[in-house]
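Dear Dr. L.,

I hope this message finds you well. Following up on our conversation about the binding site, I have prepared a predicted three-dimensional model of the protein together with zinc ion. For your records, I am including the exact sequence and ligand specification that went into the calculation, followed by the structure tokens. Please feel free to forward this to your student if that is useful.
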Amino acid sequence: MRKIVGLFIMLVVSTTAANLSAQNEVDLNSLLTQINADSVLRTVNDLENFGSRFALRSGGNIEVAEYIVQRLENYGITACVDSFYYESNNWLVGDYAQWFYNVRGVLPSENPKDDSIVIVGAHLDAISYDSNYSLLEQAPGADDNASGVAVMLELARICHANRLHFKRDIHFMAYDGEELGLVGSYNDAWKRDTASDRVAVMLNNDMVSYQPDDDWKLTLHWYDNALDIVSRAAEICSQYTDITPVVPTEEENGTSRYSDSYAYYQFGFRAVFAIEYTFSTSYHTYHDVSDSNNYDFLAEVARYNMAMLVTYTELDNTVGVAEQTVAPMACLYPNPVTDKACLQYRLSDNSFVGITVTDLLGRVVLQQNLPAQTAGIHLVELDLSQLPSGVYLCRIRTDKGSETLKIARK
Ligand SMILES: [Zn+2]
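The resulting structure of the complex is given below.
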């Protein structure tokens, strides 16, 4: 059983534009309870069913990447395949030249406390070979590393199911070509370095579902630029899960170089790398199938990650969980507008309404808070005549949800 202790987060949900506040309490433990062994198993099964996710097979991993994009988009996360062509060689496969397919899903913060990002990542590719290191056609990679991808997607599911908002952007990442030498993660870390991205922490999960006995342990590999992060990770793992965290000594920490977090470390980003303490007996073989793994353990690893995610992003208490999917079905006309625009929206129930117009830098240029309105269709005139020409975002918020429309001022 998980320990029921700890962090109780009070979310004050206020539709600021409408000058309305309601309170909602989100308890991290209740989020952790929603993490589900069947849900993570489903992802592992789906990925295993590709038969092989070896990055150099014909056509590469485009379909795997598209599957992960689809899953993220189902959870309301804007996602895309980030492909790149790469030529290199390694000891196992010799020279190669191939397209690789990373996945990047972004859950933006609406009120970021700073410009740093929290990354949850795992590699999507797999490899298998026989005792003579001859590559095999079947590479099911259930533990290595469908399990890590399953953690990433489970977090996305929990964020969506609870309409969570955070104070930092979250990037949900899946990397291709890890087994060939961290190819995908290196490419992503390089792009982030080039773009001067700031990363609060990169949470890497690689092989996190093998646990044959009741003595649940998780190794947390560390990097010397992020010792505070591994300490925090161990505390969080102890506090919120039934897993005993193991922080290796410097001599035992060599494995930290053999997974995607190391690529980030090479560019100076801070990371922590979780891996099963009892190493899988089916590593890099065609026996690495879903039946060999422990999905209650994998769900518990996902709980450790969810608690880390909440710790490093912080839940946002200004937009919060009360926001529903029922949008006010608004439209604006004329668009483009010269001076006054008409905003029309439909309320399914009586509701307060707040309207905020911002420029593309997020600066509020116009705000209207309306008293409680009855269900039905309403029209509000917005005077934009004082604004310079350009593109603006008009956000309408009601008790039931919000909608953002783009408007061009001529
Ligand atoms: Zn791996």
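In brief: The first strand starts at residue 8 and ends at 15.

With kind regards,
A. P.
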